[in-house]
Amino acid sequence: MILFTKLFLAHLIGDFLLQPLRWVVHKESRKAKSKYLYLHILVHFLVTMLLLWDLTYWRTVLVIVVTHYFIDLAKLYTTPLFKIKSIPFFIDQFLHVLVLYACSYYGGVLQQTASWFQTLDWGLVTAIVFVGFPSAIIMGKLLDGMSAQIEFDHKSLPNAGKYIGIIERLFVLVFIILGRWDAIGLLITAKSVFRFNDLKEGNSRKLTEYILIGTLLSFGLAIVTGLIYMGYR
């Protein structure tokens, strides 16, 4: 585990802390001809070797930096094919971490993965998944009749309300697991403050009631989920 942690830390330092924006821009424009691509790979090699501080790992580090080069190169050439530019970024990061994982547990990847799955808290995983998109869909169905009666005359980011709800329910779930019920009250207060201007400008009783019902329903689903998890843990 310590090997993977060091490799992952080296990746974070090399890919984020020691990679200026001008390097990224230059790589995107020049691709394989960019000198910063190779400088970036060199930085990864040096940082990884420094953190490991063991020359016997040089082959492992060599495999990591070579695969890092080809993954980065593939991202540079395939990014224009994606409408959502964040997708190749996350694919790129996933592949890098996958390589680090494989190198850390070389010879025992399947056994380590099986062991990890066996020790996983599946009740917690289920709770996290439920307060995410499933809860958002359930709320949408329950509030569908009410939302048809509300006139939204203000512009908003697409699906912003849904993602805000998912994040707030995740926070509530975490607070329940930690036993911090006071933090849930603080979260409700903070959301009320941010929503105050919308309600004031909208001057609509229906909108106010709709937001209140949605907020209470969202927090309620998260609280019930958290209590069920804590009861059967």
TrEMBL record:
InterPro entries from the UniProt entry: Phage_phiKZ_Orf197
Q: Which domain of life is it from?
A: Bacteria
Q: What is this protein called?
A: DUF3307 domain-containing protein
Q: Which UniProt keywords apply?
A: Membrane, Transmembrane, Transmembrane helix
> What organism, scientifically named, is this protein from?
Cerina litoralis
Q: Where are the transmembrane segments?
A: 36-53, 89-110, 122-143, 170-190, 210-232
